[in-house]
Amino acid sequence: MSEERSLNFIEEIVEEDIAAGKNEGRVLTRFPPEPNGYLHIGHAKSICLNFGLAKKYNGATNLRFDDTNPVKEDVEYVDSIKDDVRWLGFNWANELYASDYFDKLYEFAVELIKKGLAYVDDSTPAEIAAQKGTPTEPGTPNQYRSRSIIENLELFAEMKAGKYPDGAKVLRAKLDLAAPNMHLRDPLMYRIKHAHHHRTGDKWCIYPMYDFAHGQSDAIEQITHSVCTLEFVPHRPLYDWFINKLNIFPSKQYEFARLNLNYTVMSKRKLLQLVEEKHVDGWDDPRMPTISGLRRRGYTPASIREFCERIGVAKRENMIDVGLLEFCIREDLNKTAWRRMAVLDPVKLVITNYPEGQTEIFSGENNPEAEDGDGSREFPFSRELWIERDDFMEVPAKKYFRLGVGLMVRLKNAYIIKGEDFVKDADGNITEIHCSYIPESRSGNDTSGINVKGTIHWVSVAHAKTAEVRLYDRLFKVEDPGNEDGDFKDYINPDSLQIIPNAYIEPDLANAVSGTPVQFMRKGYFTLDKYSIPDKLIFNRTVTLKDGWAKKGS
RNA sequence: UGCCUGAUAGUAUAAUGGUAGUACGACGGUUUUUGGUACCGUUUGUCUAGGUUCGAAUCCUGGUCGGGCAACCA
Predict the structure, then answer these.
(1) Where is this motif: 'KMSKS' region (predicted)?
(2) Which residues pair with A504 in a beta bridge?
């Protein structure tokens, strides 16, 4: 019962509405993506909000594609959006499309023309812009504004019939050219586009603008709370105006601040650019803040939902630290991911007093966080092991409690060893470390009485399997690449992907299952990439483990 | 020099005229066969100037700073 949580301002509004008996207590929200790109973590915030509201107040949520601009939209995006919403764990009441309402919207437009509230304008885009004036100067009406209702009706019908080329005419609301809110200066309702639509095909050559589609779609569906982001605040008077003049269901619009995450970009335009210019491996590149990218990276739906819960909902601009997202996935995976050993940057360790050719089988629990360790698996131990290069220091730093000459450390689930010596090549790189082991320190049966501070992971050289491991870092070098001088792409982090072609993994890891996260002990959480095959395993690092030691170093 | 919006620890987010709290981060400690986890502790905040009030983060006025708005995009 986490009912301790205080309400966000939208939940407050909903509760007030319910208490006041508005809409008979009914709550119906919608999630209205335009199918012109893949969903990202910012959309996840909106999805969690809209679907969460409905869930909390016994309502429902429609998935409505805002597909009023055929030249930018595509079924590929429709499909990915549905996948992503489902993957996040939400079910929509109805799958709908603004294009379902094109006929109705056309009737609405005719109705407004008949009421003298809309007119056909033959001006060019430049002329219309000029006639709109500026924020400090009112706009000026043109000759078309006073066309008769009859003429407007005829022209609009001709627009629909395809008599005019793209851009020749538009339908505009007759509102207020002097309005201080620029959106009210006779906004466009329809434009001519002889374009093929992904659902309506070639039926239409005129398409409604957002402002003449969204509110009416909400009203048609009887959406009670239409939740969108802050940039639509100035559109709200228009939203209400159309609903009022059309005398249709009074949906209400509420706006919240969109999510900004540091070290990434969140605009579909920029994400599209990264994809098209091949800076990343598609929309689902694990470095992308897209839902599909996060999924491929190894994020879980629960971790993303938790993240959206923690960031809250308010109206002030915000910049969330990506560290919070990382906290959420660690918190989730810590409880569920099985532990395995893998050596990413190997150096050979030779146990000089361990018999050559001997092999012992050790076991380790799958997850120390689980009740009974969640079972266990076995792995072989022998005289030569791979260990992590940075688990040995030629000249140990103070408080370094791993391996060094004369230093003792435990090999996880095996013996305590003592560093004895090391071998270097001509370039001065350490190629081999020699140590001795304490036979009485066998894991689970330790009678040595020795206490060591450090424990390191290892993989037997003779038994190790290999895998490609991909380490990801933030995609951009700066917190807010979209707000820096110059092109945001100038700030791409050149080291955002590091590929380790041949990491050594413990034998059991050969059985890794796609979609099942695993923790490489002391290294982080990993998941199989979509291109991984049994003959060539590829692991993506989802996130590192928190590393208190590394932090002090830097 | 128009209109709309917003401003609470480093980052987010509560407190709805009555003790400024929570989370993440940072820092310190305990436990630990993951320098992980868990647990404990510390640190840092109401943009500013007035006003109303017994009492203001909250209400009022002025200012400052941030964001948005003049696409045949959504």
Answers:
(1) 265-269
(2) A343, A466
